[in-house]
Amino acid sequence: MLARNPPWIHIELVPVWVHIKNLRQFVREFCVGMSIVPETADQIAMTTSELLENATKYASTLWARYDLRLLGNCAEISVTNSATSKQRETLIAFVGEVSQGDALDAYIRCLERQSQEGQSQAGLARIRYEAAAEISVSQHDDEICLLAKIPM
Predict the structure, then answer these.
(1) pLDDT level of residue 55 (50, 70, 90 thresholds)
(2) pTM, whole model, 2 decimals?
(3) How many domains does the chain divide into?
(4) For the chain, which end, N or C, has fewer CB atoms within 10 Å of the first or last residue's CB respectively?
(5) Do the domain assignments include residue 2?
(6) Is residue 142 a contact partner of residue 82, using CB atoms and an 8 Å limit?
(7) What is the rounded distance in angstroms from the CA atom of residue 34 to the CA atom of residue 61?
(8) Do 133 and 150 touch, CB atoms closer than 8 A?
(9) Could you report the per-residue pLDDT of 11-41, keeping only the tens digit for each?
């Protein structure tokens, strides 16, 4: 008997807004089709969108690799893209900042900063709070990878 792999999606794309929107819709429908409750499917789709939007902000080229794995007790969503050393440093520091303390407090801090500075940087904090996600970041050579684990 063959071992079954968990359901997964792997896509390499140019993370432009129309592709992000279309992938978000596809991911939601894929999750619902895999019998994931709609609320969790929405969280996975939102996380997909937010991580890909980060790939457009912190990228040295218009390329991203998206992976989704449904592992029974959690969904793992990762986005990898190329980035300059300054972009990698900035994103690593930001992930550290939004990962500290209470998820709601971190989200509120980001929203307050957004209202003062006019820049949208609440996406990762939103993922952490609304999807109860664990967020981590890793780098290899000139690539950076954001990983979100959402409990299911």
Answers:
(1) confident
(2) 0.91
(3) 1
(4) N
(5) no
(6) yes
(7) 33
(8) yes
(9) 999 888 889 999 999 999 999 999 999 999 9
What residue spans of the chain are helical by DSSP H?
17-33, 38-57, 85-98, 103-117, 123-130
- Asked whether residue 59 is assigned to any structural domain, the reply reads yes
Token pair for 11: 């896509």
Alpha-carbon torsion angle 26, 27, 28, 30, nearest 10: 90
CA pseudo-torsion sign 125, 126, 132, 133 = negative
Task: Express each pLDDT in 102-126 by its tens digit.
Answer: 999 999 988 888 777 766 678 999 9
The Cα–Cα gap between 132 and 117 comes to 26
Asked whether residue 83 is domain-assigned, the answer is: yes
For residues 48 and 64, the answer to whether their CB atoms sit within 8 Å is no
What is the chain's alpha carbon radius of gyration, rounded to the nearest angstrom?
A: 15
Q: What is the CATH number of the domain that holds 94?
A: 3.30.565.10
Q: Are 51 and 80 in contact (CB under 8 A)?
A: no
- For residue 38, the enclosing domain spans 9-151
Residue 66 contacts residue 13 (beta carbons within 8 Å): yes
pLDDT score at 141: 93
By C-alpha distance, which of 56, 48, 139 is closest to 95? 139
Instruction: Copy the structure tokens of residue 30.
Output: 């894929």
Element (H, E) at 142: none
Supply the DSSP symbol for 58: S
